[in-house]
Amino acid sequence: MNRYTSIFLKIVRDKSSQILEGQQVSVGGAGFDHNRAQEYELENESLYIKGYFKKIYDDVLVAKKSRNIYFQGTMNEFYKNESKEVWQKDAQSWVNKNNLEIGCGPVGSLLQWFWLKNVKVIDPLALEYKNCQLKEFKKTLFWPSVKIYSIKAEKYIPALKSSIDGVIMLRNALDHLEDPMKVMENTARYAKKGCTLLFWSDLWHLKGHDEGHNNITQSIPAFKALISGLGFKIIRDVPNVREGNDTIEYGCRALKL
């Protein structure tokens, strides 16, 4: 962990402001209610399941039947504007490795990537999402082979230490968490050398956030320093996902050194 990362972790946990690499770094998170946030997530994602699950599930089945081995599903910004060969090379390298999605929600990327043989997910509501899918549609994207850790992502899982050698997906989850920095620390501890990290999140909600979201930092350089300090080499910053200017967002593809 480099000294910039240490400073950043400290200011986030202290809920204060400091200067990092000559820039003002504002941090948030005060007043976040985890229990209420989980109620918010379950309420909203249950509606999402009812409205969108069937189409997403059917698309996965079509891809599977057509032998579209490296089907990307609904989240494809990590390889946007790159050659198909770059994606296929990475995807092929993950097939038989251990893969993890943190904060998978009801239709996480790794749940859609049926071609991965070893998938683990961490989400405190994962079993709720699975049961909702089964109740509404009698089918689920939480395939029997998926190992589910239905716990807070902040809780470290010793069994996963340095075990994920394929890909870790951490997308649209970090700003939904009570302690984002602890989850970033856990992510680095789970990653084995050579593991790919696919990360994207809103870092700051410029017009304020609701009860289901948290603020992390307004400084993209500070957050990139955090990722580097946790032992990842950033390969590529990914294009913005959001339309408009309501948030400061950041995403990247990185490799664990």
Order of helices and strands: HEEHHEHEHEEHEHEE
Beta-strand content estimate: 15-25%
Spans where pLDDT lies below 50 across 5 or more residues: 11-27
Q: How many alpha or pi helices?
A: 7
**Radius of gyration based on Cα positions:** 18 Å
CATH architecture classification name:
3-Layer(aba) Sandwich
The separation of the N and C termini measures 12 Å
Mean pLDDT: 87
Shape: globular
Number of individual domains: 1
SSE class: alpha/beta
CATH class: Alpha Beta
According to CATH, the fold-level topology is Rossmann fold
Annotation, overall tally of beta strands: 9
Helix content: 25-40%
Biggest sheet, spatial arrangement of strands: 5-4-3-6-7-9-8
Query: What composes the largest sheet?
Result: 7 strands, mixed
So, the CATH homologous superfamily? Vaccinia Virus protein VP39
For this entry, give a set of tags.
two-stranded antiparallel ribbon; 9 strands; alpha/beta; 257 residues; Rossmann fold
Structure characterization notes:
- This protein is α/β, with parallel strands linked by helices and 257 residues long.
- Helices cover 36% and strands 19% of the residues.
- It is built from 7 helices and 9 strands, in the order H-E-E-H-H-E-H-E-H-E-E-H-E-H-E-E.
- It is globular.
- The chain starts with a helix and ends with a strand.
